[in-house]
Write a structure and sequence with these properties.
This protein starts with 11 loop residues before the first helix and ends with a helix. The protein is mostly helical. It is globular, with a radius of gyration of 24 Å. It has 24 helices and four strands. Among the domains are: about 110 residues, no CATH class; about 100 residues, no CATH class. About 45% of the residues are buried. The strands form two sheets. The protein has a two-stranded antiparallel ribbon. Strands 3-4 form a two-stranded antiparallel ribbon. The longest helix is centred in the first third of the chain and has 28 residues.
């Protein structure tokens, strides 16, 4: 290779380092994931996957869960706002109000769960016999594998974060730290527990950006890009907006960035090539056609599903946009509210301005614009939603797809932030604060916190105590994120403190939420008690399973990850 041609900064040792991050985080996330849905959205997504895998259609098959979602008897807010009846047909057929991409990607996980159930039928039968009547889910292992997508895709996002940072010439130590802080010090950890569509959309969107960086690296080395790379890039982008339609602004940003990179890269290659004889690779039209082909197919699939649901071929439209007057409060809630704000749920985001400034100094104007445009696009879709808080979740769930892009800026800004007075101590302090805030999101389920908070909710000035009401996701939840006594991180730590002290599951409202004059608060369901929301605890206590073999495997995976991380660092120094 000519010494005047830049080498690809992502090398073998970087992939070793990224694999180490993947192994450690996957072991930790698997140890803390839920195994069963914690809300109606997760169950509706499971039923959509089940229908696609077993019947090949989007109509939900008859099951006890669908009947309970339709009848609003499941022990969480009503699922009817996640279901839609067919229009213009004699029979009432229910369809899920979720992106088809979540079900498409979930089909292999569903069949893997069915295979495990066939190998271990005793646990599947035990699951059916020991469930709470109000908390009944069939197909235990199928639910389990579909929820496990959360740990897997979140760990893979951290894996891609290391490689993307290295392609941007971030030092290996900073790339490693940024990936670990993404997994441990942000709300990505708590979001990984249930495997909702947001986790999958985040992984696919960042995978698309990583593929774009690969294309740019090839063009920088004067190598012709391959058509299949653009097809895979287009497929990843298509599955992103098919998983979550509100990611479309971010998808369009990456499409525009692809056009700019390809146009500039091919023109640069044509001018630099001194020998016109060799093939310069596919033309710009061919590459962009390969990118847009999966998107055209995805649009056809979405139109066909819409026609099946409503009888109309019109493109889907946003439902229930919030009035403009509520956008400022939603913006403040997403960024700074003590129970939901981004600066609390991901404290290292304060380093992002340092990273953007460094990107500008290094001439990475395209990266700067992509990070800002993706973040602003996701922020706009979040504030325009009446449920800007994301419902029954921990952290600003609607901003999750933009989080790894912000963490690329964190990786870029670490050197500059640490060079300032007390900078290194400040970075470590933000990291530790993030870990401390994420732990209660893992150790206490959202259903437990909200069950107790809504019992004490009259102190917030609301007379609506209907835990199953349609307005719960909007009017009732918003004040909980602003009241410091009710805010999720701090209230959940008080729940953890009582459980760790062995004081039982009867909670003093004054100690927990600072509310006087109320009777002791108790949980509505046994499934919320203790740490049964964790898959392994539920397996041991309710099903009588022995998770020790799995713990040994996860421990070995974590040790392998530490070894690979150390190996990558040593190879860096040599």
């Amino acid at each position: 290779m000519s010494p005047y041609i830049t080498r690809d900064p992502a090398r073998k040792e970087d992939r070793v380092l990224a694999s180490g991050v993947l192994c450690v985080l996957l072991a930790l996330f698997t140890l803390t994931f839920s195994g069963l849905p914690e809300g109606p959205r997760g169950e509706v997504e499971f039923q959509a996957t089940r229908a696609l895998a077993t019947t090949g259609t989007w109509a939900l098959a008859s099951s006890q869960e669908v009947a309970r979602l339709q009848g609003q008897t499941l022990p969480f807010p009503p699922g009817t706002r996640f279901l839609q009846a067919s229009v213009g047909t004699g029979d009432r057929v229910l369809f899920p109000k979720c992106g088809p991409g979540q079900a498409l990607v979930g089909v292999p996980f569903y069949w893997a769960g069915r295979c495990i159930a066939a190998v271990v039928p005793r646990l599947e039968q035990r699951h059916q016999e020991t469930q709470d009547p109000d908390w009944a889910f069939s197909e235990y292992f199928a639910h389990w594998l579909l929820c496990w997508r959360g740990p897997l895709f979140t760990a893979l996002t951290a894996f891609l974060l290391v490689l993307a940072a290295r392609r941007l010439r971030v030092s290996r130590s900073h790339a490693w730290f940024a990936a670990f802080s993404y997994g441990l010090s942000t709300f990505a950890w708590s979001q990984s527990r249930t495997g909702l569509a947001d986790v999958q959309a985040t992984f696919l969107l960042f995978l698309s950006f990583h593929l774009l960086l690969r294309v740019r690296a090839r063009l920088t080395r004067l190598e012709p890009p391959a058509t299949w790379e653009f097809f895979v890039l287009g497929l990843a982008l298509t599955l992103t907006w098919l998983t979550r339609l509100d990611t479309l602004p971010a998808v369009l940003v990456l499409c525009a960035a692809t056009e700019v990179i390809v146009t500039r890269g091919l023109v640069g290659s044509d001018h630099r090539k001194s020998d016109p004889g060799p093939d310069l690779g596919p033309s710009r039209r061919t590459l962009m056609s390969a990118l847009l082909l999966p998107m055209a197919v995805g649009l056809g699939v979405l139109s066909w599903i819409g026609h099946t649901r409503t009888g109309s071929w019109a493109a889907p439209r946003p439902e229930g946009l919030a009035p403009l007057a509520s956008w400022p409060s939603a913006l403040a809630g997403l960024l700074i509210s003590p129970g939901h704000g981004l600066v609390w749920m991901a404290p290292l985001v304060l380093i992002v301005p340092f990273g953007l400034a460094r990107a500008r100094r290094r001439g990475e104007r395209l990266l700067e614009r992509v990070v800002l445009a993706v973040f602003c696009g996701m922020l706009l879709t979040a504030v325009s939603s009446p449920a800007w808080h994301g419902g029954w979740t921990y952290g600003p769930r609607l901003l999750l797809p933009a989080l790894p892009f912000l963490w690329l800026a964190v990786a870029l800004g670490l050197r500059h932030a640490q060079s300032r007075p007390m900078g290194r101590a400040g970075v470590m302090g933000l990291f530790v604060l993030g870990v401390v805030i994420q732990l209660p999101g893992v150790l206490v389920s959202t259903a437990t916190h909200l069950d107790l908070a809504l019992q004490a909710k009259p102190s917030l000035g609301s007379d609506s105590n209907n835990a199953g009401g349609e307005e719960l996701a909007n009017d009732d939840l918003e004040p909980l994120h602003w009241a410091m006594d009710f805010a999720a991180p701090w209230a959940r730590w008080r729940i953890v403190r009582q459980r760790a002290a062995g004081l039982g599951e009867s909670y003093d409202a004054q100690v927990l939420f600072g509310v006087q004059g109320l009777a002791p608060l108790s949980l509505s369901r046994p499934a919320q008690e203790g740490f049964r929301h964790l898959a392994w605890v539920d397996l041991r206590q309710r099903l009588g399973g022995t998770p020790w073999a799995a713990f040994v495997a996860l421990g070995a995976l974590a040790i392998l990850g530490l070894y690979l991380s150390l190996k990558g660092m040593v190879e860096m120094r040599t």
